[in-house]
């Protein structure tokens, strides 16, 4: 059974691919993720592995990316 | 009455607060720092142009109000901007105080590298050249150490 996918657009001016990839790795038990590098954005598509609210997942994921940026001193 | 719509750069759309930040007023690192402090209360997404306008979308978590969070975020921006300007302003003073604190205890091995050795030297001289009328600069061991030891020995005997 496949759960509803969710997409998040991360602006390249504020987010780094390194942080997004790290977040996808860390979220591997919750969802699988794919990044498309577009001209101005990183388009992240998350596919949940369990029945989880997509808005909740996207919000938590974007917060997690932001925390990686801060904690790893990338910004 | 305070009308939200009249506040420039602030709006609430679909339950999320949208704060437009002027990067000339608040640096990007200030925005990151302010956003970081809100991670437990809201879902934060940064967008826009770091040179012209930074758009911060704040989607509140359960139990939080979007409008209130938006205003709190603006306050936090101000807080961090102020902190940053003070850090910059007081950076030299802090450095001198720190060097003074460290070098007073180790003047022989002092290694000046950043060019304010004269300033630090003068501070150290100020510290060392004082009249110790009440003999407070003498270490405890020198002053009382022998006496105490000898009295202890006598008692033991």
Q: What does it look like?
A:
The complex is a heterodimer of chains A (75) and B (157). Chain A is of the alpha+beta class and 75 residues long. Chain A has one domain (6-71): 2-Layer Sandwich (Alpha-Beta Plaits), CATH 3.30.70. Chain A contains 2 helices and 3 strands; from the N terminus they run βαββα. In chain A, a hairpin with a 3-residue loop joins strand 2 and strand 3 (41-48). The longest helix of chain A has 18 residues, at 54-71. The model of chain A has no long low-confidence stretch (mean pLDDT 94). Chain B folds into 2 domains: 4-88, Gyrase A, domain 2 (2-Layer Sandwich); 104-157, no CATH class. Chain B has a 4-stranded antiparallel sheet, covered by helices on one side. In chain B, helix 1 packs across helix 2 and helix 2 crosses helix 3 (117-128).
List keywords for this structure.
heterodimer, A: 75 residues, alpha+beta, Alpha-Beta Plaits, three-stranded antiparallel beta sheet, B: 157 residues, Gyrase A, domain 2, four-stranded antiparallel beta sheet, 4 strands, 49% helix, 17% strand
Would you identify the CATH H-level superfamily of the largest domain in chain B?
Answer: Transcriptional coactivator/pterin dehydratase
The SS-based structural class of chain B is: alpha+beta
In the CATH hierarchy, the third-tier topology of the largest domain in chain B is known as: Gyrase A, domain 2
Q: What is the spatial order of strands in the main beta sheet of chain B? A: 1-2-4-3
Radius of gyration of chain A: 12 Å
CATH class annotation of chain A: Alpha Beta
- How many structural domains can be distinguished in the coordinates of chain A? 1
**CATH architecture of chain A, please?**
2-Layer Sandwich
CATH class of the largest domain in chain B: Alpha Beta
| Strand arrangement in the largest pleated sheet of chain A | 1-3-2
Number of helices of chain A: 2
Give the strand tally of chain A.
3
As a whole number of angstroms, the C-alpha radius of gyration of chain B is 28 Å
């Amino acid at each position: 059974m496949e759960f509803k996918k969710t997409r998040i657009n991360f602006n390249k001016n504020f987010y780094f691919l390194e942080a997004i990839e790290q977040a996808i790795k860390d979220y591997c038990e919750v969802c699988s993720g794919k990044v498309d590098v577009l001209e101005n954005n990183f388009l992240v598509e998350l596919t949940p592995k369990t029945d989880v609210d997509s808005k909740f997942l996207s919000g938590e994921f974007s917060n997690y990316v932001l925390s990686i940026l801060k904690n790893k001193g990338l910004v | 009455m305070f009308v939200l719509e009249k506040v420039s750069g602030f709006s609430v759309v679909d339950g999320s607060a949208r704060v437009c930040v002027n990067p000339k007023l608040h640096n990007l690192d200030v925005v990151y720092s302010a956003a970081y402090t809100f991670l437990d209360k809201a879902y934060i997404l940064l967008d826009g142009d770091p040179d012209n306008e930074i758009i911060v979308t704040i989607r509140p978590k359960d139990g939080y109000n979007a409008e209130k969070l938006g205003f709190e975020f603006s306050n936090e921006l101000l807080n961090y901007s102020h902190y940053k300007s003070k850090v910059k302003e007081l950076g030299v003073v802090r450095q001198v105080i720190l060097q003074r604190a460290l070098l007073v205890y180790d003047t022989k091995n002092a290694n000046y590298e950043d060019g304010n050795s004269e300033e630090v030297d003068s501070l150290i001289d100020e510290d060392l050249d004082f009249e110790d009328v009440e003999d407070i600069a003498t270490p405890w061991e020198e002053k009382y150490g022998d006496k105490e030891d000898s009295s202890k020995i006598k008692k033991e005997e």
